[in-house]
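pasting for the record
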Amino acid sequence: MEKKILLILVMAVVIGCVLTADYEYLITFKMMRKKENIRLAIEFVDHAACAFIAKRKGFYEANGLNVSAFECYITGPALAAALAREDIDAAYMCLIPAICAYANAKVPLKIVAGIHKYGYALIVNSSKISTVKDLENPDVRIACVTVGSPPDVLLHVMIEKYKLDGEKILSKVQYMAPPKALLALQGGLVDAAFLPEQYPSMGEKLGFKVLLTAQDLWPNMLGGVLVVKSSLIEHRPEVVKKLVKATIQGTEYIYSRPEDAARIVAEELQVAGKRVLPSEIAEIAAKLEITPDVISRSLAGRVICSNDIDVQAVQDTIDYLAKLGYINWFKAEEILDLSFLEEV
């Protein structure tokens, strides 16, 4: 009798384990089915550090998102142009190109979170340039990212702030992608370059000097944002909420694990660089290695990672872009949807 009871108990345990395993499998299967596809775009800079980390550490997946595309673009304006296509749902990008895409290209987008403040600098050959005024010298050559980019806008701010001769400065600016600008500086083809991070920090490692940073020129400058297509908010708001949450987790990781964060971002940028750099400079640019110490320096002071959005900072940016004639003026509230930040 005791053997029969023991046998029944053993069978009950086995059946229970099988049923539990099946139940757990079904739950896991359902969770996998519930994952929402999303297609992301980012810039080839450490401004998007929170996105690289969210990808590597599995924060997107943990929040029920399946990132089906993670496209990298060499500049913010290039990413802004790509936003008009149907194959991008959301992007980590600089605020200024986002505003221009909304105002000029009529891309239906909304800013739902910040990703960083500041993040740009003027780097120079100190043997030719020791003061901002030296930029007016006829033999000084200047590189900058394309017209309408944040470095270009900061170039105008610098001219105003230091009362420089705008015609002298702007007439000799050579516009090029950041990797080309840094290579041109290294090769002696230009003497100064206004660039987004991580390039100024890379330039310092090569022996060049950072003369001005965004902090020097534009207090409280909102550098980068997370934007989503308006249709994503309209049809899949739960996806936007999950995306904002994963982004915040990526940002928190930067401050809780700074050394590991710098390593991850450096590795991700090295991999991305092989895909996005123009073929004619890829081999040369490969020598400009993006190392953890460069990223650590960049994220420690020049790129202030933050997800907060200051509405007035957005409006100030719109006001200045309109003043330059780059866009038609509009109210910041048109491009903002901060409800998801408030929910997370």
